[in-house]
Amino acid sequence: MTPYLGKGATCALEDAISLAQALQNGASNGSIPDHLHKYETEMLSRGFAQAKQSMNVHRMVFNYGSNRWVKWCRDYILSWVDVLVGRAAPPFGLWPVSYEAMAQREKEHKL
Fold this sequence. Notes:
By secondary structure, this protein is an all-alpha fold. The protein has helices spanning about 10-30, 30-60, 70-85, 100-110. It is about 75% helix and about 0% strand. The longest helix is centred in the middle third of the chain and has 31 residues, at about 30-60. It starts with 7 loop residues before the first helix and ends with a helix.
């Protein structure tokens, strides 16, 4: 799994909790191997889905920057994603050239 979603530690904790629950349920029912098999199946399914999601983010962020126009579109879209989720102010001007230009415009706007 690539580190771009920051899910590695969270997945490890989730797996640990799921394993503890599987062992506890298996011990109370007397069928630990069955519960371990169920845990393993669920863990692998969840892990592969998260790894696939992480790779998609990796491809979007790093591979869609080989062409300067594609890179510009990616950067512009990602800047608006930050605005939509409330982490950044809207970029000033209709077509920002780069993050440096956006920072300069923001600095000028604050003065």
